[in-house]
Protein 1
Amino acid sequence: MNIPVWVNGELIDPAQATVSVFDHGLMVGDGVFETIKIVNGRSFALTRHLDRLRLSARRMDLPEPDIEAIADGVARCLEAAPAWELGRIRITYTSGPGPLGSDRGDQGTTSIVIVDEQKPFPATASVAVVPWPRNERGALAGVKSTSYGDNAKALLHAKKRGAGEAIFGNLAGRLCEGTGSNIFVVLDGRLVTPTLESGCLAGVTRALVLEWCGGEEADVPLSALYEAEEAFLTSTTRDVQPIGLVDDTELPAAPGPVTTKAMRVFAERSAGDLDP
């Protein structure tokens, strides 16, 4: 089935959809994006994701995105798609066509919505810690930018080592995040996730886990991941995924009691409210 995509207000056959070769989202990664879960044909936490898209755009000094138009694009794409049990929506928003350099152009922004089916993640995750730190003091720290070269390289590094996700520390040597996930650890019975000052993304699922399941935000050394009693990843399409292996270190339980409770509570609360 050919699901249409939404580009700047128009539903288009994906084979016919185009953006300018001068678009700065392509040329210099000058854009932001969101990935949103589809559950039985409906979006999950759409309002939170659109709020974060707006915030990311502001932090990159991009023009304010037309959130109402993008939300309409999401609805129109979902109407044209099957009611997948699990899927994903990808929203991309760039500064639009520009010159051959970093200066922005004046031809207007580009907005794109794509929907597709999503395969479930494995029941447990194995992760690899990468040798390249996140720069928690950088201009794009915590921004969901299309400048994803660091993540692509890190995930390839992890996959070559048999892991499904890569984990970053930051310049201070503290635990930060994955390439497309946040991370929680259980230390002395305490559920902990790195603070936003660590340079990690303010994940929507991360925030919901903190609200629904408790836990605390605290900066911990990267080495704490190897010593954790339990650990799990959170992200839009994986929800709460236990970590069983960190490099060559097997964690004591995957899932342990704290993770099991978080998985149960998140499943129950998210099923009861699709736009929390």
Note: The chain has a mean pLDDT of 97.
Protein 2
Amino acid sequence: MNTGIEPIVGRYIHLSIEGRNYRTYYEEAGQGIPLLCLHTAGADGRQYRHLMNDASVTEHFRVITFDMPWHGKSSAPAGWRDTEYELTSEFYSAQILAVCDQLDLHDPVLIGCSIGGRIVLDIARSHTDRFRALIGLQSGPRVAPYYDREYLHRPDVHAGELCAALMSGLIGPAAPAADRDETLWHYAQGGPGVFKGDLHFYKDESTSDADLAAIDTAACPLFLLTGEYDYSCMPEDTLELASRIPGVEAVIMNGLGHFPMSEDHDTFMAYLRPVLDRIRTSTDATG
């Protein structure tokens, strides 16, 4: 356990996306190959704090995570009170590429979970020239609705407590209590309507079979890691997805749920470390 000053450094950048300015918060730790991390719906970059504090990772990777606009420490745009936030694949992809441009990231690795795992599939189809490898956590091409999203943004419902309650069932049963609590706390702090808006992308937009067929893993390696305890993106969803993409590597992570990077770091690293080692070794071999 880290009892001193953590090596994580946080700053703000300004992103110009679709004609609007977004004051965006990001954190980083380490050096080496850029590893850009995407948080889940309604949460923020704190989900990756274990990874940024793992010296075995930061020795070789510059780990970076950003709070999406409207999330965490990032600002909502001017006029937000008259705007209904709704995440689209175009806006999400534009954020990722804008962060890469603003931070001057050359050939980074991209890792995303849940909605981040979904957008990784879009990136794999359209922007493989920008990344050296892609890692999808809890990735599925589509998700069937399993609750009424209107309850997430009502004046008579505490959305933060409801979001935390909904997410509690997606965490693996063996997760350490402290990490479970911290994961749920992230969800209890979301801005009004933000989780609901993220779920537009997660549930109303999907990756088509034609898009999946267009993914070329020879151009950019794609790894899929999915926790076994997840009814939002079930193991069979990821395995079915992998069967549609030649060359993809898919692994089901025993004991983990929907938030592997925040709910149980040690167990997660048993699966992520071999992937990072392969990416690093491949990079060393090719110069």
Note: The domain at 9-286 is CATH 3.40.50.1820 (Rossmann fold).
